[in-house]
TrEMBL record:
This is Response regulator. The keyword Phosphoprotein applies. Transmembrane segments: none annotated. The keyword Phosphoprotein applies. The modification 4-aspartylphosphate is found at D66. Keywords: Phosphoprotein. GO terms for biological process: phosphorelay signal transduction system. CDD domains: REC_Rcp-like. PANTHER family: RESPONSE REGULATOR RCP1-RELATED (PTHR44520), TWO-COMPONENT SYSTEM REGULATORY PROTEIN (PTHR44520:SF1). Residues 5-133 form the Response regulatory domain.
Amino acid sequence: MQTKVILLVEDNQDDEELALLAFRKSNIANKVVVARDGAEAIDYLFGAGSHAGCDSPVLPQLVLLDLKLPKFDGLEVLKRLRADPRTRRLPVVVLTSSREEQDLIESYDLGANSYVRKPVDFARFAEAVQQLQMYWLVLNEAPPSGD
């Protein structure tokens, strides 16, 4: 059985470390691939850039997507994911500190499956990660890959 991969798209190193710590604390054994900007996320998902010529990437079971990213923001990443038949059905949880209502609206308009504001408190953040893991990696039935 193939490991279910989580793609964490996060440019803030403190938030990345917090998320990885929360995964460990919640006993999430899934492989976590970290992309630190929107371009790196797109390259990983579509086998381009530094991922060109590598074995075809394992599409993640879940994408945790920050919105405020360098190169391509999270909304642009989401737009590109939904435009491609290989990735249009990937579950994408926007995991962001943005409190802007327009970000919330636009995320759903572009096809986000969920929108979660990052709690600042570590205990609450770890609890949110555990709930995300339970739903998206255990309970949710993923769509078939491809078209």
